[in-house]
Amino acid sequence: xxxxxxxxxxxxxxxxxxxxxxxxxxxxxxxxxxxxxxxxxxxxxxxxxxxxxxxxxxxxxxxxxxxxxxxxxxxxxxxxxxxxxxxxxxxxxxxxxxxxxxxxxxxxxxxxxxxxxxxxxxxxxxxxxxxxxxxxxxxxxxxxxxxxxxxxxxxxxxxxxxxxxxxxxxxxxxxxxxxxxxxxxxxxxxxxxxxxxxxxxxxxxxxxxxxxxxxxxxxxxxxxxxxxxxxxxxxxxxxxxxxxxxxxxxxxxxxxxxxxxxxxxxxxxxxxxxxxxxxxxxxxxxxxxxxxxxxxxx
Amino acid sequence: xxxxxxxxxxxxxxxxxxxxxxxxxxxxxxxxxxxxxxxxxxxxxxxxxxxxxxxxxxxxxxxxxxxxxxxxxxxxxxxxxxxxxxxxxxxxxxxxxxxxxxxxxxxxxxxxxxxxxxxxxxxxxxxxxxxxxxxxxxxxxxxxxxxxxxxxxxxxxxxxxxxxxxxxxxxxxxxxxxxxxxxxxxxxxxxxxxxxxxxxxxxxxxxxxxxxxxxxxxxxxxxxxxxxxxxxxxxxxxxxxxxxxxxxxxxxxxxxxxxxxxxxxxxxxxxxxxxxxxxxxxxxxxxxxxxxxxxxxxxxxxxxxxxxxxxxxxxxxxxxxxxxxxxxxxxxxxxxxxxxxxxxxxxxxxxxxxxxxxxxxxxx
Lengths: 298, 364
Known about the structure:
Chain B: GO terms for molecular function: ATP binding; ATP hydrolysis activity. By secondary structure, chain A is mainly α. In chain A, 72% of the residues lie in helices and 0% in strands.
């Protein structure tokens, strides 16, 4: 405006006189020495980084241990209750089918583990907001969506095998307690399908937790919402008799889980419908979370 | 190519009024509302590394950053100064893509931050200390960041040694002091060996040793030819490290200049007077229209007049002078004058505080 900087030589000497010795020399030399030239923030690298983040927290391992202990503990408890001929059968609970479906009864006992894994999923996202490490993470992955894909991938990679072990562990423990009262047919396709379905349910709840963590950015809020959807809402919705409410109630993850756990074909949903329901609960909130992350200021 | 639309030379008299204080009474000026009259030392954008153009960030009705245009160049430390709430952190967050500008743009090395393939190798940033999960060790935190960019494990160990955290690197970060958190933040900024380094208030929470360490580190990084952009609300700190300054207040650019030029523009430098008849001389000067502050017994600090005039007045009345000289304006004084109207929290005795600040500065 008033002064053309290029014509004002006296001022530019200030910066010209400042030391600018071969700017990048030190840097390139350093990289040649250590051979660590970074070559891009790729998706596989983001996944590796998320794995490091997940495994480096003690809480991760505690959470998994608690989920496993709860599953096996409750499986033993429920097996003991339903195989005791004097006991009254719990109505509407995980052991409702009793000895008629010993697999479903045992897998139904993993419901509390679902909550624990859902909290783990929520913490993977909300923990970053609680500690402020989200800004480091997003500066490393400024395109943002790879962060969500990486988090979801790591949860899948860890929880698919883990929940299979957990489901089988619960069944095994139940069989031990059943003794002669009931026998689980380990090789029956219904049993395999029930175990896979149960794992699918547990993983879906964890991913649902991740989605909630991303959307709500707060651990307390995410956990509250998670408990409401996974535990509180299903039995309450059962009380309502309107058809449209029933239709919605049948699409809750809990209903999908009991349908898949059943080996006697008594589930509310078909296997396909149940899997699609779980897929929806797993994918939609995470996708919305990614969208929110993309659009919001961090 | 010229980057800025409104370029003012450092000696532009239009800037003078911003430095004058006291004489205009309680009148509040809106700095920058009349055509963005900010002091600029012009920098051609050829070697510009951080370039902000007409950056605006609004949160609802509040404008945090208002039409900010500046460039940060390599080879020296550039101080980013402004009172609390001036928009420094918001600006830095926009540079690294954490916050989206309402309008305007900012690039690093000619690209928006998000477009860089290996962002941590381009720009290293410390925004808030202890931006780390309390349950994770410093090593694992840095390792995850390194892995996300394809940076090797050896570099992680290197930066840990560089910031002096090797003894605690494997411990959980929850027990870190603020100073250790700052060191960890600096380690993560240096992790990718970036050409551009952005640090938000890096000396906060550091002990004197740490402060000295940061100063040396920043100057060293700049001497290697890197671009170093450091925010602070303390001019006294920046005066020791920075060569160039970008000064903001209430989200607006107040000055984009060098430390040297900023001092040179000080127009209202106080005159120090030592006299055994200081009381009488003081009264005479006040009646002559100057403003006088007692520094100590027999010592005055006079503004609103010149050393020559004071000497003449003393001579007319036959008063003895032991000392008479014009103070070199301190950066702190210039800065306080510049940001006077931009501070978020102002009190009635703000002016008094400022005088006190000045005297401390003079005494020091």
